[in-house]
Specification:
DNA polymerase, domain 1, 3 domains, seven-stranded mixed sheet, two-stranded antiparallel sheet
Length: 346
């Protein structure tokens, strides 16, 4: 995510100083950049130590090719793989990679993707409503807009965009596509602006939430996020760290809960937690499946078969870390970034 659109060589990775501080690449070792993008984070990791190596994944072949060229000077210390970060386990097994010292996932859209004239991620310029990160797979944003029912469109925009005007926007899209297919970014943006009737100048464009919802749906961005956290935690060395950067509340909520589960914090409802703890007190220690203590109204457990809590990591960021004011001034696209980090416990 982020960077100067006019010059990809000056791409600025989000929260770079914070990521480097947590991952400690200066000590060398194997690192996994699960969303290598244009290679900014990976470049900094490789520059931090001649003993550092990075396996970089990205589902977007165009971005991966740019990163490959940028990082060519590091030779065999960088290995690139076109793959979704949710395929982490498969990729590492195929490469025969051992446990990593650090794993990073930046879930944002890169500047290259946002500014590409034919990708359709942004409403700033006319473009086809493609929105696929991997253009070799799946249907486009236009396909969804012109095939879903009005009710399904409304649900999509409300659920993934948290847009209160979802029903009105869906109704207007269906009305428009009866006249002509909705196929471009400007068409969709104009529909949303017309429906929401937001007066004056906007701090955030009225179509932002609708575009976010459509992009999430096209790329299935929320699917498998929780599973990814568990897999990544299991591929860390003892004291290895996982850093995840998200850009909206839906992603962050999933990551937050997944990290709590991976840290052994029971996520059952308070009443269920009380039942679990009473069961623990009555369990033969030789056969126990739940181990924990009550802290306030929360149960801290090592294993919970109900919600899936398993003690793998220790959470290092009680609250997400946000970019500094200086970083946001340099790179406005970083403003919504939030970083969460955990460390392998054993």
């Amino acid at each position: 995510m982020s960077g100067a659109p006019e010059d990809e060589s000056h791409h600025e990775p989000v929260l770079l100083d914070e990521v480097l501080s947590f991952l400690r690449p200066g000590e060398g070792g194997l690192f996994i950049d699960c969303t290598v993008g244009l290679g900014g984070h990976t470049e900094a990791i490789l520059e931090a130590s001649p003993e550092a190596e990075v396996i970089g994944l990205d589902r977007d072949l165009e971005s991966l090719q740019l990163a490959r060229a940028r990082l060519a000077r590091f030779g065999r210390r960088f290995i690139d793989v076109q793959a979704n970060f949710k395929e982490l386990e498969t990729v590492l097994d195929r490469l025969g990679a051992g446990q990593a010292r650090g794993i990073l996932a930046d879930l944002g859209i890169s500047s290259h993707q946002l500014d590409s004239q034919d990708r359709g991620f942004s409403f700033q310029t006319p473009a086809p409503l493609d929105m696929r990160m991997d253009r070799s797979q799946g249907g486009t944003g236009s396909d969804l807009l012109n095939s879903l029912s009005e009710a399904d469109l409304a649900d999509l925009i409300f659920q993934y965009g948290e847009e209160r005007g979802a029903r009105r926007i869906a109704r207007a899209i269906v009305r428009e596509r009866q006249r002509q297919p909705v196929t471009t970014t400007t068409q969709l943006a104009e529909i949303v602006v017309r429906v929401l009737k937001v007066p004056g100048r906007w701090r955030i464009h009225p179509a932002t939430r609708t575009f976010q919802a459509l992009r999430i749906a096209v790329n299935r961005e929320l699917e498998g996020l929780a599973e990814f956290v568990s897999v990544a935690a299991g591929r860390l060395k003892p004291s290895g760290r996982l850093a995840v950067i998200s850009f909206h509340s839906l992603e962050d909520g999933i990551i937050k809960r997944a990290l709590r589960l991976a840290s052994g914090q029971c996520q059952c409802e308070p009443r269920q937690r009380a039942i679990l703890l009473r069961a623990y007190e009555q369990t033969d220690p030789a056969e126990e499946r739940i181990r924990g203590t009550a802290i306030g109204n929360r149960a801290e457990v090592v294993v919970c078969d109900r919600c899936g809590a398993r003690k793998q990591v220790t959470i290092l960021t009680r609250k997400p870390i946000h970019p500094s004011e200086d970083e946001i001034k340099r790179n406005p696209r970083a403003r919504s970034a939030r970083l969460r980090v955990c460390e392998r416990s054993d």
